[in-house]
Sequence to fold (192 residues):
Amino acid sequence: MKKIDENTLYDTAELFKNFSDSTRIRILYCLFEKERSVTEIAELLKMNQSAISHQLRFLKNSKLVKNRRDGKTIYYSLDDDHVYNIISQGIEHVQE
Amino acid sequence: MKKIDENTLYDTAELFKNFSDSTRIRILYCLFEKERSVTEIAELLKMNQSAISHQLRFLKNSKLVKNRRDGKTIYYSLDDDHVYNIISQGIEHVQE
DNA sequence: TGAACATATGAACATTTGTTCATATGTATT
DNA sequence: AATACATATGAACAAATGTTCATATGTTCA
Fold:
């Protein structure tokens, strides 16, 4: 790794902020397997739809998830290969 | 990666919380190179000693840094190989 | 022992964050 | 067009967070 400027570190903190909340990390984790609708995610996490929607927007702004519409339903999925890797590494660390 | 329980995901979020604040990630990053005293870190980051001390305690509780005393001075250093890897991967992601 | 230095800590405060509630938007079906 | 369903969004609120200030603790050296 080469020398890093301050802005890069700020941006890196922003990236990790996505993974620092248990709701968001659980959302991302349940997208590991496959794309899911908002309702589906809300049911899986036993949280209300609004909370999930707000967090999905957060993740979307950070370009970590993408979505597609199919009729009334909007499916979310991971938008970034690194997400899987970074979270997996975090999980492995915790599991040791 | 095998199936994960809820607690593991909570703990993983806790781990990432360490990296989600720019002060903490800058502290960790400046420890990449070598161990440093509290005063030294405060000067590098242009922040007051108290703020750094509080964040170091946070990082110490999470077992991400360790310290040793040499006379009046206390030197902090990284306590975990994974820290370097996870942050590096985050930085690489941001730099793309 | 007393002064100077390095670090830690508690309290207070402002800011940020995550959730809920109510409601708006968009789509499909009848 | 009206209704039902899926999702998004704004406002309000409580809780968590990060910093500062003041001060305490611990160490060294004269």
About this structure: Helices of chain A lie at 6-17, 22-33, 38-45, 49-61, 81-95. Residues 21, 23, 47-48, 50-51, 54-55, 69, 71-73 of chain A lie near DNA strand C (CB under 10 Å from a C1'). Chain A is about 60% helix and 15% strand.
